[in-house]
Amino acid sequence: MPNQERRDHKKQGFFPEWFSLRQKDLSKHDDKMHVIGEVLLFKDLRRRDRREVVNLFHVRNFARGEIIFETGTPGMGMYIIVEGSVRIEGSEESNNIVLAELDEADFFGEMSLIDETPRSATATAIVPTQAIVIFRTNLRDLMNRKPKLGLILLRRLASIIAYRLREANRQLSESRLKEKKNGKN
Amino acid sequence: MVKTNTRKYINPLYRRLFLLILALVSLYVFILIYPHISDLIVVGVIALVLTYVFRPGVEAMERMGVSRTAAISGFFVLTIGLIVLLFQYLVPVLIHEVGLMTTKLNEVDFTELYRKTVEQINLKVPVIGNFTDLDPDSAGAFIENTKLAIIGFLQKSITLAAGAVNFIALTTVVPFLTFFLLKDGPAFTKKVLENVPNRFFEMTMSLAHRIDIQLGAYIRSILLESLIIFSLTWPAFAMLGMKFALVLGMLNGLLNMIPFIGPIIAAVPIAIVVAATYTPTVWGLAWVGIILLSAQIIDNILLKPLLISRSVKVNPAMVLIVVLIGGRLAGAIGMFMAVPVFSVMQVVVVDLYSHLKSYRII
Question: From CA A30, how far away is CA B62, in angstroms rounded?
Fold first, then answer.
């Protein structure tokens, strides 16, 4: 839709990168605590620990269609959706494959909290979206200052990633099995 | 998929031109207002240095279970205490010693001293005599000029130190600024980053973190190195009965912060002061040589590899060039600040380009 794209661009002005910052605050709630209570990584933390975690948050607004991060770019942090929707796409032989569509309280990019390997997928805001970003560097600083809390977060992160890996393996096995069956038929 | 891509519609040249003009205007405005805010900048720099110095201690206390506010309050009290102690005990002693040193240097005839020293050297070690066969008047004149430069520098330093930041500013503004930088520094950084567009956000965060880590590590390591060198040379000078051991030790420690040429710059005034005040002069110079050389061996073999090389990854040849340029631009202060400023510029310029490429912005 090139005309829609041009209209969106005209709205964005001379410095479109600043367009997102001029958006109204989409969040229904001032307090971000309700979101982190729903995220597995931060569930059931003590109030004092939750406050420490909230200090790590950076709140960002993304326009409809804005790319949050692209495949191959350095990964710096994890995103938690406060409001809106995000599409996660992978590319396979120059074809874009939709891997997931995420909504409020979902999170993505969590592998960047572990290491610096480039992003394995592209994340795009489907609708105007507000997200919380937690950076690897800030998390490391927190682990340095509060080792116990850091260990809890690291363990939970490891189990989330392990769960996703098992899910991916299961889906891959199912898909291979289907292919074999289709091939036999 | 709707992909936001502005390069098709806006001529990048106009945006770059606008940003360039904005940068030049900002620089011009900064140059205009700098003379009026230089005091504030000095206070800010001192507070920033103290923040970097105290931060590991605050984090260590947090690890032990002390709340961040309590840990920072402890260091706040420590900062005020240190400043009061400095002004009560150390600064008067230093001013007194510098005054005595200036008087003593003015009394000595260096031409005559040089002639006697050369005679003594020729008697004891005739081989060296072949290399010291300089015209005593020209050598004496050189030493006289150096002596006047040292006296001028010492007097100027005391005046500058007293005038640049007065006692009230140091005991009130600096501790409070340090307290808030330690407590709310991360929140302030977060507030600044809120104004960065999404496209540059992760990249800016990465760069800011790298600059913070590198600068903090360098400041802490250079101060620790300077303190160790001072701790080695001051007792050594004092044990040998050299006058003004404290001032000489401090001079050596401070100037050691300037990479490569700092120790050489420190050796000249130390040698001149010892020659003027220690008898016999030859032994005094010999001991100075041994002490300074030993300190440098310890510094280069032990301290620099352990402390400095990990914090700043700058080519040694580049360090030398940068220090000389810093000296040209801003004198002694420029020499001190040259390496940390260059390493920040290196992170910003070199890493910025690779980050812009990695994030596919250029």
Answer: 29
Better-scored residue on pLDDT, B138 or B329: B329
- State yes or no: pLDDT of B176 exceeds 80: yes
Indicate the DSSP class of residue A14.
S
Query: Residue B48 and residue B55: Cα distance in Å, rounded?
Result: 10
Q: Are A73 and B360 in contact (CB < 8 Å)?
A: yes
Rounded CA-CA distance B231/B233 in Å is: 6
Yes or no: say if A112 and B205 are a contact pair by the CB < 8 Å rule. no
- Tokens describing residue B156: 């100027």
A147 touches chain B (CB under 8 A): yes
What pTM value is reported for the model? 0.75
Residue A74 carries which DSSP code? B
Two tokens, residue B49: 């240095």
What number is the average pLDDT over the span B219-228?
Answer: 90
Residues of chain A with pLDDT under 70: 1-35, 92-94, 184-185
Contact B15 A1 (CB under 8 A): no
Q: Which of B63, B187, B201 sits opposite A145 (nearest CB)?
A: B63
Alpha-helix runs per DSSP H in chain B: 12-63, 68-85, 91-107, 110-124, 126-129, 136-164, 167-168, 174-193, 198-239, 245-255, 262-277, 281-298, 309-311, 316-346, 352-358
| Beta partners for residue A100, in sequence order | A88
Do the chains contact at B63 and A146, CB–CB below 8 Å?
yes
Q: Strand order of the sheet with strand A86-92? A: A67-69, A122-125, A86-92, A95-102
Instruction: Name the residue of chain A whose CA is nearest to B58's CA.
Output: A145
Residue B233 pLDDT: 92
- Unique residue bearing structure tokens 């008697």: B123
A95-102/A86-92 β-pairing: antiparallel
Q: Give the list of residues 6+ apart from residue B72 with CB closer than 8 angstroms, or none.
A: B58, B179, B182, B183
Q: What is the ipTM of this complex?
A: 0.76
Query: Which of B3, B4, B205 comes nearest A135 by C-beta?
Result: B205
Q: Tell me if residue A91 falls in helix, strand or coil.
A: strand
Tell which B residues from 185 to 204 touch A, by Cβ distance under 8 Å. 186-187, 190, 193-195, 197-202
- Pairing state between β A122-125 and A67-69: antiparallel
Position A68 scores a pLDDT of 92
Least confident of A52-66, B37-51, B143-157: B143-157
Of A1, A62, A87, the CB nearest to B198: A62
Side chain identity at A6, as an amino acid letter?
R
Could you tell me what percentage of chain A is helix, strand and coil, using 3-state DSSP and rounding each to the nearest 5? 45, 25, 30
pLDDT value at B285 more than 60: yes
Do A108 and A88 contact (CB within 8 A), yes or no?
yes
